């Protein structure tokens, strides 16, 4: 176990901890900056006629301290590797983040803020990492952002331990997160924060907007625990800023202490929700735009023109623009440092630049997987372990119940060069941490979980798909819980579901997942002990689907199947062939990948055109298809398939053969 936290500890973690002084400007300008952030953040929901002004009005001092005095970032190079990461966990407070991104010089014009929550605006109601520069992760579902932040801190700690060298602290940045009461009520935040404390992750600073109000009213309705004691029990440094409304200096000092603590830190910042509004300190200001007269009085009290929205005083604009330019200079300096690092440490430099450039060293798939692909699927851990050993970008973890990996690479607070985290039974937080790794950059995250528990992580898996994060999810077979996975996954855009039948198809799934970095992949493993199929093919399985067995070039019927049901279809094929029935077995481990193949290839495999080529009619001789998969949603609408049903007795070889016989009798098709 890591040593217990000590209040005020000044120990340092991996990498150099900076102590930049605040920009030497007067308190009056700082107050005007905060007022600008408040008004700008309140203007957006009012003009958009929807949104959450309450928390931005309360959190404006925190945002100003972080973006104006503490954080290192580059508007011209938003992805520069050593930037400080900022995560707005309570994503409904998005107007606050857009205000800071615009003020500091990112490519987010004022006109976009004026289109807040409008279709095609760069300022959607909740931050989206793929729509707005400066947004690291998609947040909104409470608890996700703070859990992503833990994953980012994992990535930072790992790269610092592996690549920092004397005189070259390439990774000495921090991860900052603002969260609200709702995030801390969510169970996944406790999962993630307990993990961060266990691993003693340095340079992770969470500012808790403690305003005692939720959307339903006072937090006393549902949230009465002592949060600070909970975090102390997790092993975090904890501090309290009692005046978060006007205490800029206190917030600044608390952030510097937290950053230097050498472990994760929580700063409780007591604020007034809707500060400056006539509805301040009530839940009425949480999720409803300010009325025009309320907004006008807020502007007047801030010293701004009452009738002029989206107003930024010149001194305020100059202050934030200068901060952004300083970050651009820092980013250029870091690149120069990296070049010097390459002269002294060429091997490490090559590894690092490949990782940061998302260049994966192509594994020798045949050599790595050749022996493993001939083994029963129970040794899938051998397949994945071989890949992890050969692909340094791979980092992730497993939850309780997943078979152990054969890698000697555990990430602990004592060894941060390890690449495998034991998440314990923390499915939701573990998957969210993998999203944080994906957002951090330089990683191919993987997450392993028993099939019966994988849906506990569904919120994070869905956000992987939405955020274009190429996380590899592996659902290890445990005999329960896998039946409903296909229906859910195939209803989720940008998620590839693989149901491989043997080790060769598992290897194909891993290869596809590792080479497609903008789409998550969920691999549902077949039962332990499943024997290798004599006719399976890794190279063809990479296409998503292929002809596994076919007695003739033009069959009279096609069995389309995947995963566990492939072996049963192969046995049914043998039964029917002995009766003179011309049957083809098509294995489709991944419909999403198969759908992307050429029309000619799909026609060759299925004997009929793809649904996406609806203008092309199927030839009269096109064989009918029976789709054989447990829990399938696909019936006649795909390839004229017949849904066989999800009852296990209907998926046995004889039952499948009987269905074929019934279809032949009904359609009078010849043998």
Query: What is the subunit organization of this protein?
Result: single chain
**Which residues form runs of ≥5 with pLDDT under 50?**
3-24, 633-647
Mean pLDDT: 90
Task: Report the β-strand fraction as a percent range.
Answer: 5-15%
Tally of separate domains: 3
| Cα gyration radius (Å) | 28 Å
Mind telling me the CATH superfamily name of the largest domain?
A: Thiamin diphosphate (ThDP)-binding fold, Pyr/PP domains
Q: What is the CATH class designation of the largest domain?
A: Alpha Beta
The helix count comes to 23
**Structural class, judged by helices and strands?**
alpha/beta
Q: Please provide the count of β strands.
A: 18
Q: End-to-end span in angstroms?
A: 69 Å
- Form type: elongated
CATH topology of the largest domain: Rossmann fold
Helix content range:
25-40%
Q: What can be said about the biggest beta sheet?
A: 6 strands, parallel
GO molecular function: metal ion binding; transketolase activity
Cofactor: Mg(2+); thiamine diphosphate; Co(2+)
GO biological process, one term: pentose-phosphate shunt
Catalytic activity: D-sedoheptulose 7-phosphate + D-glyceraldehyde 3-phosphate = aldehydo-D-ribose 5-phosphate + D-xylulose 5-phosphate
């Amino acid at each position: 176990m890591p040593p217990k936290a000590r209040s005020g500890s000044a120990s340092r973690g991996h990498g150099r901890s900076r102590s930049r002084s605040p920009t030497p400007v007067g308190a009056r300008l700082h107050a005007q900056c905060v007022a600008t952030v408040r008004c700008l953040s309140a203007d957006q929901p009012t003009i958009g006629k929807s949104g959450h002004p309450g928390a931005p009005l309360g959190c404006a001092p925190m945002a100003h301290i972080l973006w104006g005095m503490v954080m290192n970032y580059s508007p011209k190079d938003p992805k520069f590797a050593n930037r400080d990461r900022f995560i707005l966990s309570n994503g409904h407070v998005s107007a606050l983040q857009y205000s800071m991104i615009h003020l500091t010089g990112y490519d987010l014009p004022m006109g976009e803020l004026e289109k807040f929550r409008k279709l095609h605006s760069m300022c959607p109601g909740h931050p989206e990492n793929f729509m707005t520069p400066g947004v690291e992760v998609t947040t909104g579902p409470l608890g996700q952002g703070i859990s992503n932040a833990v994953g980012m801190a994992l990535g930072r700690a790992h790269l610092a331990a592996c690549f920092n060298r004397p005189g070259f602290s390439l990774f000495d940045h921090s991860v900052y997160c603002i969260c609200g009461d709702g995030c801390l009520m969510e169970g996944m935040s406790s999962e993630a924060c307990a993990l961060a404390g266990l691993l003693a992750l340095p340079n992770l600073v969470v500012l808790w907007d403690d305003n005692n109000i939720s959307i339903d009213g006072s937090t006393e309705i549902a949230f009465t625990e002592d949060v600070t004691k909970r975090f102390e029990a997790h092993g975090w440094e904890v501090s309290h800023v009692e005046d978060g409304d006007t205490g800029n200096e206190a917030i600044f000092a608390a952030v510097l202490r937290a950053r230097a603590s050498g472990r994760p830190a929580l700063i409780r910042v007591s604020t007034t929700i809707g500060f400056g509004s006539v509805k301040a300190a009530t839940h009425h200001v949480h999720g409803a735009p300010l009325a025009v007269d309320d907004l006008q009085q807020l502007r007047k009290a801030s010293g701004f023109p009452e009738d002029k929205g989206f107003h930024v005083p010149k001194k305020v604009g100059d202050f934030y623009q200068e901060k952004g330019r300083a970050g651009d200079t820092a980013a250029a300096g870091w690149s120069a440092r990296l070049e010097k690092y390459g002269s002294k440490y060429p091997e490490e430099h090559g590894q690092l630049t490949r990782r940061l450039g998302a260049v994966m060293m192509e594994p020798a798939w045949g050599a790595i997987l050749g022996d493993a692909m001939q083994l029963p699927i129970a040794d899938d851990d051998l397949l994945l372990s071989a890949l992890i050993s050969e692909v340094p970008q791979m980092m992730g973890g497993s939850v309780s119940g997943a078979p152990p990996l054969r890698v000697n690479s555990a990430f602990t607070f004592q060894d941060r060069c390890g690449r495998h985290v034991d998440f314990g039974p923390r499915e939701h937080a573990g998957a969210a941490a993998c999203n944080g790794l994906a957002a951090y950059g330089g990683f191919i995250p993987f997450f392993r979980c028993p099939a019966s528990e994988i849906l506990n992580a569904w919120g994070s898996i869905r956000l992987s798909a939405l955020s274009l994060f190429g996380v590899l999810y592996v659902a290890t077979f445990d005999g329960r819980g896998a039946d409903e996975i296909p229906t859910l996954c195939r209803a989720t855009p940008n998620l590839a579901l693989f149901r491989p039948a043997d080790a060769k198809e598992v290897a194909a799934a891993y290869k596809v997942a590792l080479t497609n970095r903008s789409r998550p992949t969920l691999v549902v493993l077949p039962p332990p002990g499943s024997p290798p199929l004599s006719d399976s093919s890794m190279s063809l399985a990479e296409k998503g689907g292929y002809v596994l067995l076919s007695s003739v070039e033009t069959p009279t019927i096609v069995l389309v199947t995947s995963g566990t049901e492939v072996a049963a279809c192969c046995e049914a094929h043998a039964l029917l062939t002995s009766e003179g029935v011309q049957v083809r077995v098509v294995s489709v481990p991944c419909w999403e990948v198969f759908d992307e193949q050429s029309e000619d290839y799909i026609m060759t495999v299925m004997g009929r055109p793809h649904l996406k080529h609806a203008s092309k009619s199927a030839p009269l001789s096109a064989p009918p298809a029976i789709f054989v998969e447990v829990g399938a949603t696909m019936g006649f609408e795909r390839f004229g398939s017949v849904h066989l049903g999800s009852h296990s007795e209907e998926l046995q070889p004889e039952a499948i053969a009987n269905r074929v016989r019934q279809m032949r009798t009904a359609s009078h098709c010849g043998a």
